[in-house]
Amino acid sequence: MSEAVLTRTTPRLSAGEALAGWMLTAPAAIAFLLMLLAPTLATIALAFTDYELGAPALNWIGLENFAELLQDRGVAIALRNTILYVAIVAPASVLGGLALALLIEAGTRGRAAFRAVFFLPVVSLPVAMAAAWQYLLHPTIGPLNAALRAIGIAGPNWLSSSDTVLISLAAIGVWENIGFNLVLFLAGLTAIPRELYAAAEVDGASRAWDRFRLVTWPLLGPTTLFVVTITMTRAVRVFDSVAVLTQGGPNKASEVLLYAMYEEGFTYFRLGYSAAITLVFLAIVLALVWLQTRVMERRIHYV
Amino acid sequence: MSDRSILRDLPRLALLTLLGLLVLMPYIWMVAASLKPLDEIFRASLSLLPERFYAVENYGKVFAKVPVWRYLWNGVVVCGGILFFQLLFAVPAGYALAKLRFPGSGFAFGAVMLGLLVPYHVPALPLYVGFSQLGLLNSYTALIAPATISVFAIFLFRQFFKSLPDDLIHAARMDGLGEGEIVWRIVLPNAWPAATAFAIFSVVAHWNDLFWPLIIVNGTSYATPALGVLYFRSDEAGDDFGSLMAAAVLMTAPLVLAFLLAQRRFIEGIATTGLKG
Amino acid sequence: MDGISIEGLGKGFGGTRVLRGVSLAVAAGEFVALLGPSGCGKSTLLRCIAGIEQPDAGSIRIGGREVTGLRPSGRDVAMVFQSYALYPHLTVEENIAVPLAMRRLNAAQRLPFLGALLPGTRAARESITKDVRQAAGALGLGALLSRRPGQLSGGQRQRVALARAIVRRPTAFLMDEPLSNLDASLRVQTRREIVAIHKAAGVATVYVTHDQSEALTMADRVAVMQAGEILQIAPPAEIYANPQDLRVATFIGSPRINTLEAEADSGGVLRVAGQAVGMRVAGTGPMTLALRPEDLQPAGAGLPAIMEGVEFLGESLLIHLRHAALGTALVLRLAPEDRDTLPSEGEVALRFPLGRALVFDGAGKRVAVHALSPEATLV
């Protein structure tokens, strides 16, 4: 009987199903079009114009913006600083997160408490925490330099010296990201079957390092790859701490891509040029995703 | 090995505690400074406790100079509005992509996957131009509208709905429910884990966001908590770290308290959801 | 002795005592099955022998050597896990090689790239490869050496796990439900292979299972465990025919052994629902009379029972009845051609050979049975 019902209703249902499918996706599709697709395409188009906010008209200038980018010392520094920032934040917060995860996973006591402590920066308002860092790193009244003075070291002017500003911002970046990575690694670690560790012990891997090499590290491979790429994409987007603490200074020593894009677009209103910087940013993000999928395909297909 | 003696566990616990304190440093000093008068802060002593308890003055100054409640309210409206529309758009779309066969569904899913690759900074410039032409700068609309479409939410709900049994949907259809009713009365109630995880992810992201409000908002009436701290820092506080830290504490507190109350859900929502996505 | 000997092993998790003073001796070359329902402590016992769990009390000797407190790597045992626990990132060959590499190469020689340059590494690697290929060949894995576990069927993974265990020629094999993830036909085939491997290696083997047919078909001796204790350890036939504990009697055998409440009077005469059943036991008070389904026969007179139904199993029939006075369910196994000896409904009488009657006292311990009179060999 159910057979009969099915055959009778199926054709009618699929016409209805198509209609329902369109109706249910329509709101999302419209919002997608208006808020994501059209403006993204417009950004790409803008990058090839000389559009400035308030200008009466815009002209197609082809690749001129990109030619200017190549000459622009500020953008070159921003690119260099962004890469440097990522090159410090990503490895430090990935390895740090892994080390913390292993340390937490090594025992049963205090797991939730420690996890919460290290995760706290992830949910804290970055602007407010940047203000707290500003106080902490303040050259004269900051507790860090006060502590250094107490042991006889004259601390630098962390955020206002071009030698230390990027390192300081990167330290804040590591602080913001390490808890996030820790949680991802903890999830990866709990997914490793306990029996593999037992098997490794029986097989003669008596030292912790042997078990790490034989079981933990290889089985954490997919997690590590994911953590590395997600940390890199998060770090490339560094904006808040720069906007609050340094505005790219001193003397562009902490200029980064997104802040350069923001300044060109919304301080100088050179929207065409700002769009070109945005495309450089987008290209880096896409390159990271591409790298991730390539590496994913090549290895770590265990099961 | 799980029941190790506390003595053998002690080095591990000590190391973790030390590292934990290091991570908590900014919070500790932020709160400490918000309780101190300015002259004590300027003495740069390493004592955490204030000699003169100055919290009332510091926090009082913040409340007197800054529309704290306004900022917090704006934060609530913006986050609530964004979440409402994200769910309104993403849940039906996620259901349709997971369970319905219709022409164009493959194309739509492709668009979602493509959308996942684009950071929200990329469409910002044209959106700013658009809102400014419409005269909508400095409005809730401009703060909320760009975030109403979350391809991540569509993707997440699609994955989740895919795991719901088809028979549940068939049974609902046999019982005479329309597709719209199925979404809100059958599918969503079964999607609470995904919905809460996404809600936490979304609220944290937008409460903490500075980039878009900084572009679109000018002045205090529509400023979010993030902007509020920024304004206070540059306009009112100057070198008055006591009240600046008080403002920072006030604006950070809501999410941090919510996190401490529902840690596991927060961690699932923010980090582990991303792992699946 | 050179096998495994365990004395008074105790282990608790939190408040629950999982092992309550277990003692067990496995001779070199002997195959002992630990049989019991899930949660009886059999896996914990095995993991204590392996050194994966540390017991709270008692001692373990393997190969004549005290190993209590030693790490698993120091015990010279090999283990096959229920989930096989193969390293998913290593090939079949590399998986089998792990226990050899851990022993024949030192930490520096195991380093990637660099280790290959150190003196002695090449010779050791060659000997490992030779032994790995031999073990793999013995289990028919020769063609699969470069595959990863993810590309293997369940049965093939199981063989890799076995190869990894035998490659090292350990003092003892420990197997934790190794067949439970295989389908039924493969399970029967692999049983014989494991027995053959054990015979060839001649190594003390402890095999944990909840499947009585595995235990009875494979083991030299079966240790029946329940609630953290070994109730009885004996050869399979003995365990089946001569259980010393009511719990052993009811656990072994399918369908379950028939049990009838009984009473022994002051003279030891056993009665079921007031009816003397022709025997005297060494004891008085409440007893349990246990009878295997194949030991019950229809007769002109005997235990009164009411027919309830017949199940056809192919090679035999199961007759379901109920004791007329007690209401206790009874099962009787009959050859199909004997179907006519019973009516399809109504009351029948059942008898049994006295030598097959198992009687247990109130505490569940076996008591001896004597015929009441020479001619009363049947009820």
Walk me through the structure.
The complex is a heterotrimer of chains A (303), B (277) and C (379). By secondary structure, chain A is mainly alpha-helical. Chain A has a single domain (67-298), classed as MetI-like fold, CATH 1.10.3720. Helices cover 75% and strands 0% of the residues of chain A. Chain A is built from 13 helices and no strands. Chain A has helices spanning 2-46, 64-71, 73-105, 111-123, 126-136, 143-150, 165-190, 194-202, 208-219, 221-236, 240-246, 257-267, 271-298. Chain A is globular, with a radius of gyration of 26 Å. Chain B has 15 helices and no strands. Chain B has helices at 6-34, 38-42, 55-65, 68-99, 105-116, 124-133, 140-144, 151-162, 166-174, 179-187, 192-208, 211-216, 225-237, 241-261, 263-276. Chain B starts with 5 loop residues before the first helix and ends with a helix. Chain C is an alpha+beta fold. Chain C has nine helices and 22 strands. In chain C, strands 21-20-14-11-12-13-22 form a seven-stranded antiparallel beta sheet. Chain C has a six-stranded mixed beta sheet with strand order 6-7-8-3-9-10, sandwiched between helices. In chain C, helix 2 (92-104) packs across helix 4 (121-138), helix 2 (92-104) runs parallel beside helix 5 and helix 4 (121-138) crosses helix 5 (154-166). Classes of the chains: A mainly alpha (303), B mainly alpha (277), C alpha+beta (379). Chains A and B meet through helix 1, helix 3, helix 4, helix 5 and helix 6 of A and helix 1, helix 4, helix 5, helix 6 and helix 10 of B. Chain B: It is found in: Cell membrane. Chain B: Keywords: Cell membrane, Membrane, Transmembrane, Transmembrane helix, Transport.
Comma- or semicolon-separated keywords:
heterotrimer, B: 277 residues, mainly alpha, MetI-like fold, 2 domains, 74% helix, C: 379 residues, alpha+beta, Rossmann fold, 7-stranded antiparallel beta sheet, 9 helices, 33% strand, elongated, transport (chain B), cell membrane (chain B), transmembrane (chain B)
Quick structural gist:
The complex is a heterotrimer of chains A (303), B (277) and C (379). Chain B is mainly alpha-helical and 277 residues long. Chain B has 15 helices and no strands.
How many structural domains of chain C? 2
User: How would you describe the shape of chain C?
Assistant: elongated
Radius of gyration of chain C: 26 Å
**End-to-end gap of chain C:** 47 Å
Q: Give the strand content of chain A.
A: under 5%
> What is the end-to-end distance of chain A?
42 Å
SSE pattern of chain A, N- to C-terminal: HHHHHHHHHHHHH
Structural class of chain C: alpha+beta
Outline the low-pLDDT stretches of chain C: none
Shape of chain A: globular
Strand content of chain C: 25-35%
CATH class of chain A: Mainly Alpha
On the 0-100 scale, what is the average pLDDT of chain C? 89
CATH architecture of chain A: Orthogonal Bundle
How would you name the oligomeric state of the polypeptide chains in this document?
Answer: heterotrimer
Instruction: Tell me the Rg of chain A in angstroms.
Output: 26 Å
What is the CATH superfamily classification of the largest domain in chain C?
P-loop containing nucleotide triphosphate hydrolases
